[in-house]
């Protein structure tokens, strides 16, 4: 595993994604590849009025401590999430009232109309745990408290964790007798573990290490993460739409992919990449930028060192933009030191690796935060009525084909402003030892070990 636990494996933090990747904690809903809601601990659901949903809880499920899954237990877990400080980010700006209706039905009332509530409930941060998990002062301990095919038995600080097969699982029983998980932040060490056979399954092999491995063991998974150049539309040279077009036309995406990412990324055709399998077929034509010469316009590009490839991207962009007549300076710092300046619009351009699908599995939240007039992450300082209207239309459309079409219309509206120039879509490189079968290759990084995952030694 790439990262050690940061919050004691509480599901109310990003540690929840480890619990889901190990198949130990489960949610009411899961998502299919298109991001549509599918049954998990809830077998069915319906919207009874614009603010109210009812979920039928799966019968015959037991927690790892032997206690039964009930509607009351679901209510308690979800209520604990709503009262957490800080809240799980999937609940930001959302107020829920959660009650049990009989033994098998949970009613959830939302303060605002929320067509994405089922998708929100798929977030690993809203996993349902046994009563024993919830201690004083908001502490949540998932050991022995999940419902999945693997039972978490121990956690050794930030170094390792152990899980055993749970034979009382309600679904398909696990093929493997257990999981030994080691937390190894050093990418070279993770790659070495695959090469030497000390690990069967390895997260996030660095691009530089991948060529050193047996390529039959290396698997690239498209991520819903786009490397984008954000251009400041409010002030400076890129307040002029013509300069934005010149910059957009000057960028050679293939060179960046081939040199910085060694070909292990996808050239961007839009904001949303191949991790969303429906995006390419629904993409709407955009206005092609007109090339030109910037006549010596001076710009400053900002980016950060926390992702080591981004400073290298900045070097490539500087060369390409200078060839188009810009005078370019770079400002590269740690993310914690540069974020506030980026959000305040202190750069003419900013390079960012940005997740385009957040915890609900839906890209509307990303489009709103990054490109709406009052978006909280609007580095481009973009305020365009057409863009706002398109994003609003997408947000109000029910999940399904019509919403996806509306999302792509919003993407087109953003791209037509040339306020953001998507360059590439990242991939995660996963290592799988010879003899390993049926591991998940999940763009959302919610799954890794499946019930059928096994090693034939």
TrEMBL record:
The entry's cellular-component GO terms read: ATP-binding cassette (ABC) transporter complex; periplasmic space
MF-aspect GO terms? peptide transmembrane transporter activity
CDD domains assigned: PBP2_NikA_DppA_OppA_like_3
Report the Gene3D superfamilies cross-referenced here: Dipeptide-binding Protein, Domain 3, Periplasmic binding protein-like II
Domain Solute-binding protein family span(s) in chain numbering: 38-376
Record's superkingdom? Bacteria
| GO BP terms in the entry | peptide transport
Report which residue ranges the record marks as coiled coil: none
InterPro entries assigned: Peptide/Ni-bd, SBP_5, SBP_5_dom
Signal sequence region: none
Q: Which SUPFAM superfamilies match?
A: Periplasmic binding protein-like II
Q: This chain belongs to which protein, by name?
A: Putative ABC transporter substrate-binding protein
Native source species: Microlunatus phosphovorus (strain ATCC 700054 / DSM 10555 / JCM 9379 / NBRC 101784 / NCIMB 13414 / VKM Ac-1990 / NM-1)
């Amino acid at each position: 595993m790439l990262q050690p636990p940061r919050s004691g494996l509480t599901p109310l933090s990003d540690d929840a994604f480890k619990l889901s990747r190990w198949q130990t904690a489960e949610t009411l809903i899961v998502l299919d590849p298109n991001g549509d809601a599918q049954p998990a601990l809830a077998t069915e659901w319906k919207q009874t009025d614009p603010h109210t949903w009812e979920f039928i809880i799966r019968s015959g499920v037991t927690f790892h401590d032997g206690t039964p899954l009930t509607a009351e237990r679901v209510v308690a877990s979800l209520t604990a999430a709503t009262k957490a400080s800080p809240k799980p980010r999937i609940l930001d700006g959302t107020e829920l009232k959660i009650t049990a209706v009989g033994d098998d039905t949970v009613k959830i009332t939302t303060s605002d109309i929320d067509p994405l509530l089922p998708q929100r409930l798929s977030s690993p941060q809203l996993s349902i745990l046994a009563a024993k998990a919830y201690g004083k002062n908001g502490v949540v301990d998932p050991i022995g408290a999940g419902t999945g095919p693997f039972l978490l038995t121990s956690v050794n600080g930030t170094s390792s964790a152990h899980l055993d097969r749970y034979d009382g699982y309600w679904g398909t029983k696990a093929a493997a007798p257990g999981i030994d998980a080691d937390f190894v932040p050093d990418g070279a060490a993770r790659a070495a573990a695959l090469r030497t056979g000390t690990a069967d399954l390895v997260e996030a092999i660095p691009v530089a290490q991948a060529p050193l491995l047996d390529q039959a063991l290396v698997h690239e998974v498209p991520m819903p993460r786009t490397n984008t150049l954000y251009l400041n539309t409010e002030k400076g040279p890129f307040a002029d739409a013509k300069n934005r077009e010149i910059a957009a036309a000057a960028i050679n995406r293939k060179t960046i992919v081939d040199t910085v990412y060694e070909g292990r990324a996808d050239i961007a055709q839009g904001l949303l990449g191949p991790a969303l399998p429906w995006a390419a077929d629904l993409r709407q034509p955009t206005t092609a930028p007109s090339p030109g010469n910037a006549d010596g316009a001076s710009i400053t590009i900002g980016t950060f060192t926390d992702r080591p490839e981004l400073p290298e991207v900045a070097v490539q962009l500087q060369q390409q933009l200078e060839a188009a007549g810009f005078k370019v300076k770079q400002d590269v710092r740690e993310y914690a030191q540069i974020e506030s300046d980026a959000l305040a619009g202190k750069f003419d351009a900013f390079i960012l690796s940005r997740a385009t699908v957040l915890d609900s599995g839906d890209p509307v939240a990303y489009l709103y935060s990054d490109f709406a007039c009052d978006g909280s992450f609007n580095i481009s300082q973009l305020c365009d009525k057409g863009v706002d209207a398109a994003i609003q239309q997408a947000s109000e459309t029910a999940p399904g084909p019509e919403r996806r079409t509306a999302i792509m219309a919003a993407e087109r509206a953003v791209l037509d402003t040339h306020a953001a120039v998507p360059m590439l879509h990242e991939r995660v490189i996963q290592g799988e030892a010879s003899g390993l079968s049926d591991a998940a290759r999940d763009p959302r990084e919610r799954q890794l070990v499946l019930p059928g995952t096994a090693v034939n030694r």
